[in-house]
Design a protein that fits this description.
eight-stranded antiparallel sheet; two-stranded antiparallel ribbon; alpha+beta; Pnp Oxidase, Chain A; 170 residues; 4 helices
Length: 170
């Protein structure tokens, strides 16, 4: 695998997207290189909606990243090789309010052409422009078991992002 990112059409992503998100995890990042936050996520999806390649990610309002994604027009999703599992665990269990995650992990933030932030160590990253959001409403859970994910009542905000850039090292 090379060290430089190359533009890739999202349709040409070789990874199994269910594994990529659900078990490999990703960093959701919003802000600028001067001030940003990233968090680990393992819920989301990719698809085609409104004649656009899109991603779906969900962020709880109590997460520090929520403040950044709310203010930003764009965000990124960064995906890593398994050897970065400890980094993803750190980003998922520590808040940027309390800890400098960059110092705690040693990964390198980079600015994309659109001003977003991704990580040099990622194997794949997507630049996404927010085009829709919706707060999850427990009254709309058809399967009542879903509510067990929200014992604290901290329902996610769902964001749909148009994938405006896709970059891979493979």
């Amino acid at each position: 695998m090379g060290n430089e990112f190359k533009a890739l059409k999202p349709e040409l992503i070789n990874d199994n997207v269910f594994k990529l998100i659900g078990s490999d995890w990703m960093l959701v990042t919003a802000g600028t290189v001067g001030k940003f936050n990233a968090m680990t996520a393992s819920w989301g999806g990719f698809g085609y909606l409104w004649n656009k390649n899109i991603c779906i990610c969900v962020v709880r309002p109590n997460r520090y990243t929520f403040e950044f994604i709310e203010k930003a027009a764009d965000f990124t999703l960064s995906f890593f090789e398994e050897k970065y599992r400890d980094v993803l665990s750190f980003y998922g269990t520590n808040s940027g309010r309390d800890v400098d995650k960059m110092k705690g992990t040693g990964i390198t933030a980079q600015e994309g052409a659109d001003g977003t932030v991704h990580f040099q160590e990622a194997k794949l990253y997507l630049e996404c422009r927010k085009i829709y959001f919706q707060d999850l409403d427990p009254k709309n859970f058809i399967d009542p078991k879903i509510a067990t994910n929200y014992s604290a009542g901290d329902y996610h905000r769902m964001y749909i992002g148009e994938i405006t850039g896709c970059f891979s090292k493979e």
